[in-house]
Design brief:
The structure is a single chain. The longest helix is centred in the C-terminal third of the chain and has 27 residues. Strand 3 and strand 4 form a beta hairpin. By secondary structure, the chain is of the alpha+beta class. The N and C termini lie far apart (87 Å). The chain has 2 domains: 131 residues, Jelly Rolls (Sandwich); 238 residues, Jelly Rolls (Sandwich). The strands form 6 sheets. The chain has a 6-stranded antiparallel sheet with strand order 1-10-3-4-5-6, with no helix packed on it. The protein has a 6-stranded mixed sheet with strand order 19-16-21-15-14-24. Strands 9-8-7-2-11 form a 5-stranded antiparallel sheet, with no helix packed on it. Helix 4 crosses helix 5. It has 6 helices and 24 strands. This is Cysteine dioxygenase. InterPro entries: RmlC-like_jellyroll, RmlC_Cupin_sf.
Length: 393
């Protein structure tokens, strides 16, 4: 099978290996005349690369190459004369090797690489996923920063993702939840956050009761109250996202999610209260023995924004490591404009190391939830006032 590369000499090829033991999975980048060929062979323990009959490198051994659930990637970068290969999401943190072509007078490697315009692969051994236009070049920032706040130092250091660099879908979601009035405590209910905290900590109230009910949500055999959180939805499911597109997630002290992915959707996440610890993983593995580790972690605080794309930041675990404060986030999801499959589940790793589908449903609508918290809080204040009167009398 052959596919045209959009920009000659640069791309990322995302693929998986098919379950075969008789043929070595192979793909190649070629010029228009097939004079120059960059050939890649993916063997069980290594990746071998040949450039026009010249062996140029041997990849670092990796046990995960043979994991049939793992997405693999290969980055072709003619401008910087570099080749990367990796496992999981296509980024520097997941690469297993880098090769930089030498600057030599007798051979113009840059010109040779720039001549490569076709990808050819064996359909019997390789499952094509996607061709991405731009190669892997530098670490990708997790935090979003608005254009009005972005500095020259921010761009130079690569610490923040400019909102303008995200897709039009993500920019739309960001604008919907980034306003100064998009907050929890409002004039009509200035104690909303305190009311939620009170409901979580008080037996018999709604949040506390719902968390108890959800203790078997991710493992029916082993109830775990800490592996729970509350999903409060804003609006309706319009078919353009996995579940309702706007979700307020409530993470009590010490609570966490399983490692999970996000159905290939795009997302923008804002912290409305507290702090959440995020662990990013390269992919979900069917094989628990692979013991996949997070490649990056970040602590997001109030009014921090982060993002998810169909190929980046897809797989993570969220943990509220605070000992005193509930974390509340707003998460906005939408499918990419080119997504026609619309997978509606968040896959996660259960307690036995197996991948399971999770339907991102709603625990309660936001309007009803806010009114219920108001009622519980009013009753609490009334009870406290009655108790104070008893002490006076």
């Amino acid at each position: 099978m052959s596919k045209k590369i959009r920009n000659a000499g640069q791309c990322i090829f995302l693929y998986k290996l098919k379950n075969t033991s008789t043929i070595i999975p192979t793909f190649s980048f070629t010029d228009s005349n097939r004079t120059n060929i960059l050939k890649v062979e993916v063997k069980k323990d290594n990746i071998y690369i040949t450039l026009t009959s010249e062996n140029i490198l041997l990849a670092i051994p990796s046990n995960n190459i043979n994991d049939i659930s793992a997405q693999l990637w290969f980055s072709l970068d003619a401008k910087n004369m570099r080749l990367y290969a990796g496992i999981g999401e296509p980024r520097l943190e997941t690469s297993i090797f880098l090769y930089s072509f030498p600057q030599t007078q007798d051979r113009n490697y840059k010109k040779l690489l720039e001549s490569l315009i076709h990808l050819e692969y064996d359909e019997d051994t390789i499952d094509f996923i996607k061709l991405i236009k731009d190669p892997v070049t530098r670490n990708i920032p997790l935090l979003i920063k608005d254009t009005e706040e972005l500095t020259m130092d921010d761009i130079a250091k690569g610490k923040y993702m400019p909102i303008a660099n995200l897709s039009t879908v993500s920019q739309k979601m960001y604008r919907c939840i980034s306003g100064k009035k998009f907050v929890l405590n409002t004039a009509d209910f200035p104690d909303f956050v305190d009311a939620i905290e009170y409901s979580i900590r008080t037996p018999g109230l709604w949040c506390n009761t719902m968390l108890q009910k959800k203790s078997r949500e991710f493992d029916k055999d082993k109830p775990n109250i800490l592996e729970t959180y509350l999903r409060i939805t804003l609006g309706e499911n319009n078919g353009e996202s996995p579940g309702v597109p706007y979700v307020m997630e409530i993470w009590p002290v010490g609570h966490y999610s399983p490692v999970h992915s996000h159905a290939g959707s795009e997302a923008v996440i804002r912290v409305l209260n507290g702090t959440i610890h995020v662990k990013l993983y390269p992919y979900l593995s069917h094989n628990i023995s692979n013991n996949i580790k997070p490649f990056s972690t970040v602590d997001l605080k109030e009014n921090d924004f982060t993002w998810i794309s169909p190929t980046l930041n897809q797989t993570h675990q969220l943990v509220n490591k605070s000992k005193i404060e509930t974390c509340i986030t707003i998460q906005c999801y939408m499918y990419d404009d080119k997504d026609r499959s619309h997978y509606d589940y968040f896959d996660y790793i259960d307690g036995h190391g197996h991948i399971q589908p999770y339907e991102p449903d709603s625990d309660m609508d936001f309007i009803n939830f806010k009114e219920l918290m108001r009622q519980e809080w009013s009753s609490a204040k009334a009870a406290a006032f009655t108790e104070s009167l008893k002490k006076v009398r």
